[in-house]
Amino acid sequence: MMQNNIKDDPRITRSKNMLRKALIDLLDNQSVDNISVKDLVEQAQIARSTFYLYYLDKQDFLDKTINETLAVYEQKVQGFDELPYRAAIQKRGEAFFNYIAENADFYRVMLGDNGVAAFRNRMANVGYRYFYARYEPLALKDASKDDLATRSIKFSILANYIVEGKISVTSRWLDSGMDLSPNYLARITSDIVYGVLVERKLLSPTNE
Q1: What Gene Ontology molecular function terms does this protein carry (predicted)?
Q2: pLDDT of 145-197, one tens digit each?
Q3: Is 45 left (phi over 0), alpha (psi -120 to 50) or beta?
Q4: Are 174 and 104 in contact (CB under 8 A)?
């Protein structure tokens, strides 16, 4: 019970949000490798002792901040599998880009040159998990034993192309100041993804 009270304490949420904002502000001007706990607490204007109430060190702070952010991201883009494929791709795209827009500063710096090197890969892993769960069974359906390895390789390349491509588009969009609306970008990228899946015969337009 006490643990829940601590977890839900608005003072803790406020302190963590201040540290998160401090990280964003610092990453605008320097690499994450050059940022210290001292830099973070001074930028956030909180006591060093407060930082160590929640985190063991800078790496623990980065890991937990990234984990919490990506957990919300993964939650935001779930829940559309009951829709027809094209509609599901569109809705997932809208959820993705609107969530990114709401957290633009964080994703801009984390995907930028000064961000955490592993962040892009961890973000991509969220996309890979969904893509493999949703489309790999279709890609390997009715494959013969001899053809299975070849199809698996082709599917892996396709997944890489779509997931990494979407993250690259996202990074450039953020760097441009989000010159396109989230829903417009979702529509364009969703049309591309759907078109590729149809072309590779993973989906059929007649199934819609």
Answers
A1: DNA binding
A2: 888 898 899 899 999 999 999 999 999 999 999 999 999 999 999 999 999 98
A3: left
A4: yes
Q: Mention every residue, 6+ apart, whose C-beta is less than 8 A from residue 131.
A: 159, 162, 163
CA 155 remoteness from chain centre: 21
DSSP 8-state class, residue 206? G
Q: What's the domain count of the chain?
A: 2
Mean pLDDT of the chain: 90
Contact 46, 55 (CB under 8 A): no
Average pLDDT of the segment spanning 75-100 = 92
18 token code pair: 């201040």
**Is there a single domain that holds both residue 79 and residue 111?**
yes
Phi, psi of 177 (to 5 degrees): 85, 20
Domain that holds residue 39: 1-55
Based on the number of CB atoms within 10 Å of its own CB, is 114 exposed (0-12), middle (13-18) or buried (19 or more)? middle
User: What's the token pair of residue 165?
Assistant: 């491509």
- Residue the block writes with tokens 């880009």: 97
Instruction: Write the pLDDT tens digit of every residue in 100-122.
Output: 999 999 999 999 999 998 899 99
Same domain, 175 and 141: yes
**What does pTM read for this prediction?**
0.87
Summarised one tens digit per residue, pLDDT across range 50-75 is 999 999 999 999 999 999 999 999 99
